[in-house]
């Protein structure tokens, strides 16, 4: 079964009003060419954090913690275009998303090169100009993290019921980018709960395998029901035996 998901309330409320969406942890690594003023670097980093944390969908890990986990390595320099290396750095960071922001001089402006990596996907690349005199890579940041994306769930039986961030879901519409919690239930199977990261303008495929209810557990439940019915039937028989006696029992 393949399903693409949308919270039922999305048609009635703004995307940001879906308060049950989990918060994704972000590890940020920033570096810049010497020609880029330190003030521009600080402004870009601060604006990036402000935009994403202000959305309520992301929380940044402390830079010292990220530096410790990555052992001071800059993934851009260490990995280049090595996908496995980026995924390893994302895993080591302990975050849901690893973001590398590299700033380079571009005439009177600054170009921001951003890469987004997780432990499971190929790194995504974005780039855009940042005016030196003010502003931040707002368009890039919003496109990278805040625009809607889609989620395709593969694997559950056709009879499966899905909940996304605590709400029942239907198909074919985009979701807010970021981290989402998915709960899947189906008759005869144990429920499963997992999380998925949705990226803007992309479809995230999530493979889900439900575990059938163990035969022993199912048999035990059937025997419990049979025993309950037997007890009920026995109780009725006793009541009849006590409450209804042959007429000869009262004759002299």
Could you please describe the fold and organization of this structure?
This protein is α+β, with helices and mostly antiparallel strands and 252 residues long. It has a domain at 21-145: TolB, N-terminal domain (Rossmann fold, 3-Layer(aba) Sandwich). It has 6 helices and 12 strands. It has a 7-stranded mixed beta sheet, with no helix packed on it. A 5-stranded mixed beta sheet has the order 3-2-4-5-6, with helices on both faces. Helix 1 runs parallel beside helix 5 (138-145). It is elongated and about 70 Å long. 25% of the residues are buried. Residues 1-19 and 226-252 have low confidence and may be disordered.
A few lines on this structure:
This protein is α+β, with helices and mostly antiparallel strands. It has helices at 38-54, 63-69, 75-79, 83-93, 138-145, 215-243; strands at residues 2-7, 24-32, 58-60, 97-106, 109-117, 124-131, 150-154, 161-164, 167-171, 178-185, 192-198, 203-207. The chain has a domain at 21-145: Rossmann fold, CATH 3.40.50.10070.
Topology, pairings included?
Blueprint: E1 2-7, E2 24-32, H1 38-54, E3 58-60, H2 63-69, H3 75-79, H4 83-93, E4 97-106, E5 109-117, E6 124-131, H5 138-145, E7 150-154, E8 161-164, E9 167-171, E10 178-185, E11 192-198, E12 203-207, H6 215-243
Parallel strand pairs: 2-3, 2-4, 7-12
Antiparallel strand pairs: 1-7, 1-9, 4-5, 5-6, 8-9, 8-10, 10-11
Helix pairs in contact: 1-5
């Amino acid at each position: 079964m393949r399903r693409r998901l949308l919270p039922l309330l999305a048609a009635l409320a703004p995307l940001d009003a879906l308060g049950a969406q989990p918060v994704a942890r972000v590890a940020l690594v920033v570096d810049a060419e010497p020609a880029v003023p330190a003030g521009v670097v600080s402004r870009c980093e601060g604006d990036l954090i402000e935009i994403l944390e202000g959305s309520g969908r992301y929380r940044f890990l402390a830079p010292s913690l990220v530096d410790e986990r990555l052992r001071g390595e800059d993934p851009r320099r260490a990995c280049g275009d090595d996908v496995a290396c980026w995924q390893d750095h994302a895993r080591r960071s302990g975050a849901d998303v690893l973001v590398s922001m590299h700033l380079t001089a571009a005439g009177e402006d600054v170009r921001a090169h951003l890469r987004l990596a997780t432990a499971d996907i190929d790194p995504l690349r974005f780039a855009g100009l940042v005016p030196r005199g003010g502003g931040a890579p707002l368009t890039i940041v919003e496109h990278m993290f805040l625009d809607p994306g889609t989620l395709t769930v593969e694997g559950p039986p056709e009879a499966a019921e899905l909940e996304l961030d605590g709400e029942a879901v239907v198909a074919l519409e985009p979701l807010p980018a970021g981290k989402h919690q998915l709960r899947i239930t189906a008759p005869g199977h144990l429920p499963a709960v997992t999380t998925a990261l949705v990226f803007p303008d992309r479809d995230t495929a999530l493979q889900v395998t439900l575990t059938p209810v163990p035969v022993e557990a199912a048999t035990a439940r059937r025997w419990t029901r049979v025993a309950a019915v037997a007890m009920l039937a026995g109780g009725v028989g006793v009541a009849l035996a006590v409450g209804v006696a042959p007429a000869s029992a009262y004759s002299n």
